[in-house]
Specification:
single chain; 240 residues; alpha/beta; Rossmann fold; 6-stranded mixed β-sheet; 4-stranded antiparallel β-sheet; 9 helices; globular; binds adenosine-5'-triphosphate; ABC_AA/LPS_Transport
């Protein structure tokens, strides 16, 4: 089967800084792929280029075989790629349920049957149904992250990119998040996740890709990649 996302030779320069130096990466339909690498290795830039936040300096991104390279973010979202940000994003002055309703107005037309046909069903899924009437701005941090996940899912993506979804979460919140993310492939949603927490990545991902200075240095089964001397080398003194 051809990959849901095929990235070839992707490059991104910021002035003199090479954030991506020609990355090839395939995301297979139905998997949860992890992207790891030291600080500044290009992980967020990779997501930003795939989602149209930044235009690449070179290379191509094919989504379900369609060239989406350099399209505007709304067009890429409409095509079926969802994104959660490192900073949880919601309209602070609006209610939790209202936020999900508004995100759902930008959903992709068609696609497979919707596992969460109403905003309330989506809030139930992420465990926030009791907080639907609260203003998003008063939510504790962990709940705000879960709302961020609900907002991304409301756009009905077939590929979801998660950027450090567990940053700032406690252990209980992290295991709740792991439980939710693991269910996504069963609902027809392929996942690509960035995180520094290798325990989390081991729980979530059967496959890891490793970036270092904007280049992919390893790609394969999680345990094999984490034992790869090249990978150990870039994390030397780090938190692996
Ligand atoms: N908007 C920008 N303007 C200039 N340089 C940038 C910009 N975004 C990223 N960079 C640079 O590109 C390189 C890759 O950064 P990026 O944020 O993609 O790394 P990362 O692997 O996500 O890091 P972290 O793990 O710290 O989030 C870094 O040198 C960074 O300083």
């Amino acid at each position: 089967m051809s990959p849901i996302l095929a990235i070839s030779g992707l490059g991104k320069q910021f002035g003199g800084v090479t954030a991506l130096a020609g990355v090839d990466l395939a995301v297979e339909e139905g998997e949860i792929l992890g992207v790891v690498g030291p600080n500044g290795s290009g992980k967020t830039t990779l997501f930003n280029v795939v989602t149209g936040v930044h235009k690449p300096s070179g290379g191509t991104v094919l989504f379900r075989g369609r060239d989406i390279t350099g399209l505007a973010p709304h067009a890429i979202s409409r095509a079926g790629i969802g994104y959660t940000f490192q900073q949880a994003m919601a309209f602070a002055g609006l209610g939790v349920l209202e936020n999900v309703q508004i995100a759902g107005e930008h959903r992709r037309a068609g696609g497979a049957a919707n596992p969460w046909p109403t905003p309330q069903a989506l809030l139930d899924f992420v465990g926030l149904s009791a907080l639907g009437g609260e203003k998003a701005g008063v939510l504790p941090f962990g709940s705000l992250r879960l709302l961020g996940l609900a907002l991304a899912l409301a756009t009905r993506p077939s590929l979801l990119l998660l950027d450090e979804p567990a940053a700032g979460l406690n252990d209980r919140e992290t295991s709740a998040l792991v439980g939710l993310v693991r269910q996504l492939p069963g609902h027809g949603i392929t996942v690509c996740v960035i995180d520094h927490d290798m325990k989390l990545m081991q729980m979530l991902c059967r496959r890891l890709a490793v970036l270092d200075f904007g280049s992919k240095i390893a790609d394969g089964p999680t345990e094999k990649v984490l034992a790869d001397p090249k990978v150990l080398d870039v994390y030397l003194g780090g938190d692996l």
